[in-house]
Amino acid sequence: MTTKKETAPVRGNKLVKKAIDVAVARGAMGSPEPVPAALVRKLKLPNGESLSPALKELLSFDGSWLGVDYDEDEAEVEGTSLEEVIEEAFGEEAVPAFAEAYELLSEDCVAFGAELSRPACLYVGAANERDEYPVLTFSWEDGVAQIGGFVPFDVWVAQELGALERGKAIGDVPPEYAGLPQELADANGDGRVVFTPKAGEATEDEEETDDEEEEPRP
After folding, report:
1. Which of 99, 139, 205, 217 has its CA 20 to 30 A from that of 169?
2. Residue pLDDT, tens place only, 119-147
3. pTM score, two decimals?
4. Which long-range contacts (CB under 8 A, 24 or more apart) does 135-140 make?
């Protein structure tokens, strides 16, 4: 008796192409603004590497939905720090709550300008075997920070555009893609797919100032 051969889940540019079709059918991409093909081919990420297949596919169809900034003359996607992304998402008061994450995830990020289900950015650290980088997702509710996800960009786009089921929690992916976030969490962080980072403490300079103020006057 022969068993039916299992088909591998769709990945990369094919998955993003499917996601685009779904988004167009739903009216989520009403007026696409493609990035010129010649520029898509030349664009480099902040680490100097070429765009991933999924990101190329998306920008070739529409460069406006994701809201990625790039320098057309230099053909470079603009990078930023995770700390700056957090401040943009939640305000300056949230920045100390994610302090541990800045040390653990110190490579450049690419900010997203899109209206997303949860604030997120591309983390330009270590890519997977398909040259897709992880997307970091984060929340800050009632003073509690959470960050992680490490969902490959192609899978994350498909979830955001409705081609794949969107996870209820950070890092959730459909069963056929299970294991992918863990691989990227291992490669880019310390293996935690999602975590509550330790909040920041006073810097050395601030501590010295406090000590000086506490010294009794003669």
Report:
1. 99
2. 999 999 999 999 999 999 999 999 999 99
3. 0.88
4. 136/82, 136/105, 136/109, 137/170, 137/171, 138/86, 138/89, 138/98, 138/170, 139/170, 140/86, 140/89, 140/90, 140/94, 140/97, 140/98
